[in-house]
Design goal:
Blueprint (H helix, E strand, L loop, with lengths): L1 H4 L5 H4 L1 H14 L7 E4 L5 E4 L1 H10 L3 E3 L6 H4 L13 E4 L3 H13 L4 E4 L15 E4 L6 E4 L4 E5 L4 H9 L3 E2 L10 H7 L6 H4 L6 E7 L5 E5 L4 H7 L8 E8 L1 E2 L3 E10 L3 H11 L7 E9 L5 E9 L3 H12 L6 E2 L2 E4 H6 L10 E9 L4 H12 L6 E8 L2 H5 L14 E9 L5 H15 L16 H7 L3 H11 L18
Parallel strand pairs: 4-6, 5-6
Antiparallel strand pairs: 1-2, 3-4, 7-8, 8-12, 9-13, 10-11, 10-12, 14-16, 14-17, 14-18, 15-16, 15-20, 19-21, 20-21
Bound molecules: flavin-adenine dinucleotide (FAD).
């Protein structure tokens, strides 16, 4: 089975060397390409990479190496979050683990600033670096399912839609995020909340093996049997330990038809609905997931939306959702039997690529009435011509049943993952939107402890709070596998200082 696991055949990529030669010729052999390449080291010192070395690196890859003047460079460097516009010195479009190993070795030997791009959905834009080397995994997007073993093998640059679709073709699924164009790689390494999470745990809890290239350029498989310490850290430790080239996920039989969709309430009813949801979340069945959003649109329309998904059958779902329908009369009720794959795509358009997003978030350990007042005031006071929202994803259930020390993801007892977000398009609004989000977060933050490393970066005390009982073990593991902090563009756990 494990031999099969790594057999991804990219027919398009198989043709790359022939196609790439003329492209390399224009990017690397033209007069401009002979010059050295300006770049930054990990600690942001200016360096010049010798043109000959860069050319040699390109020749060692099966995928393409893109420079600023290469065709496709601007498309490859584009992040989902349009608030960021960064220019890597080099983009290695890896075709497989061998390319990733070459790219990591090139970064290490030149002490280059390195970023790793899986699905490109980093909210803080960190997967696209400025003047460093970006390892681009977007061509490594294969997904295959072994329906007998119920294992999905997903490459490091694949999107969640591929996992959901291939698994559902066999009536199987595992926890994935709630927007299908998000990357499997980043989401899983940092944790992975989703519509099935209260039933099956975080995405990372369902991982059985990860192929990874570590900072020394070595290819390892991490699982419960091999490289166990690395396996522990990769599940929740974010991108701190290496480049994941492939994941094996445990799948579960689920009915493809689920009861789901949005229930929308007026802003006037929001306090009562929030109060009910905060209480109900403690006792509702694990099959029910609620993502709530208190929203104010640029046209001044305010409302509370509950995005619901019940995965345990339609009749049981109607019963579980009935108390929510009874709190107040919804202004819109879109909850109906819907294929799971469709539910997973339902927010794809509203959270589309290229808009500008500013998010700050944290974990709510225990909801209290005071939090209701804070989030209502946050949205009541919002005035900019941007989308303002406070969003909260339910936790509990299987998330909570896992021991905090079983994986690097320590925050098992939380009730909600909360964040404030501003969404806009006009660059003239960027400063004001960011200011609003930072101000709003100041009010919400005291109700949180720790944060979700996939949504936010911080250092110092908040990182310690986030990893809690696991923090020292994370530092030890980082010091073992990445003592030079090559993988630093993430919610970074710094290695211990070398004596
Ligand atoms: C629209 C949207 C919806 C989301 N919904 C959810 C949700 O429902 N649940 C949830 O838990 N999270 C959700 N998130 C947060 C999401 O988990 C993070 O944004 C995550 O980092 C996205 O992964 P990516 O591969 O697309 O990102 P990228 O931008 O490609 O990578 C982000 C970081 O992850 C690391 N990384 C990515 N791939 C690899 C790899 N293969 N190997 C090593 N490191 C890697 C790198 O450190 C990189 O900087 C959502 C984000 C967005 C933008």
């Amino acid at each position: 089975m494990f031999m099969k696991r790594r057999q991804f055949i990219h027919t398009a990529l198989a043709a790359v060397p022939a196609l790439a030669i003329p492209r390399f010729a224009s990017a690397l052999e033209g007069p401009a390409s002979l010059s050295d390449v300006e770049a930054l080291t990990g600690d942001r010192k200016e360096i010049l990479l010798k043109g000959a070395d860069v050319k040699d690196f390109a020749a060692r890859l099966r995928g393409e190496l893109l420079l600023r003047n290469s065709a496709g460079y601007d498309t490859a460097r584009r992040a989902w979050n349009g608030a960021f516009d960064r220019h890597p010195a080099l983009i290695a479009r890896c075709s497989g683990p061998a390319d990733v190993m070459e790219a990591v070795k090139f970064a290490t030997s030149n002490q280059l600033l390195l970023s790793v791009r899986g699905g490109g959905h980093s909210l803080s834009g960190q997967s696209v670096c400025e003047k460093g080397l970006m390892i681009d995994l977007s061509q490594m997007n294969g997904a295959r399912v072994d329906p007998v073993a119920r294992i999905a093998t997903i490459e490091g640059g694949a999107l969640l839609g591929a996992l959901d679709r291939e698994a559902q073709a066999h009536g199987l699924a595992t926890t994935a995020g709630t927007v299908s164009h998000t990357g499997v790689g980043g989401l899983t390494l940092g944790g992975g909340f989703g519509r099935l999470g209260r039933r099956f745990g975080l995405a990372c809890d369902n991982v059985r093996a990860i192929d990874v290239v570590t900072a020394d350029g070595k290819f390892l498989t991490a699982s419960a049997k091999e490289n166990k310490d690395l396996f522990w850290g990769l599940r929740g430790g974010g991108g701190n330990f290496g480049v994941a080239t492939s994941f094996d996920f445990q799948l579960h039989p689920v009915d493809p038809m689920m009861l789901g969709g949005e229930l929308v309430y007026s802003f006037a009813d929001a306090p009562a609905v929030l109060k009910f949801v905060f209480d109900y979340a403690r006792e509702m069945p694990d099959e029910l997931n609620i993502d709530l959003g208190l929203v104010r649109l640029p046209n001044d329309n305010r409302f509370l939306s509950l995005d619901l998904c019940f995965s345990g059958g339609i009749a049981a779902g109607e019963k579980a959702i009935a108390p929510l329908r009874a709190i107040a009369k919804p202004v819109a009720d879109h909850v109906k039997p819907t294929p799971y794959v469709k539910l997973q795509q339902s927010a794809d358009d509203s959270l589309s690529h290229g808009k500008k997003y500013y998010l700050k978030g944290g974990f709510v350990q225990q909801t209290r009435d005071a939090l209701i007042d804070v989030v209502i005031a946050t949205i009541a006071d919002a005035k900019l011509p941007v989308v303002h929202a406070v969003s909260m994803q339910t936790a509990g259930g299987a998330y909570r049943r896992m021991s905090p020390t079983a994986t690097a993801f320590a925050q098992r007892a939380i009730e909600f993952n909360a964040f404030v977000i501003a969404i806009w398009e006009d660059p003239a609004l960027s400063d004001a939107a960011g200011q609003w989000a930072r101000g709003a977060w100041k009010n919400v933050e005291p109700h949180t402890h720790g944060f979700y490393v996939n949504e936010f970066n911080d250092d110092g005390d908040r990182m310690k709070a986030t990893y809690g009982v696991n923090y020292d073990r994370m530092v030890a593991l980082k010091s073992k596998f990445d003592p030079g902090n090559l993988f630093r563009l993430n919610a970074n756990v710094a290695p211990a200082k070398r004596a």
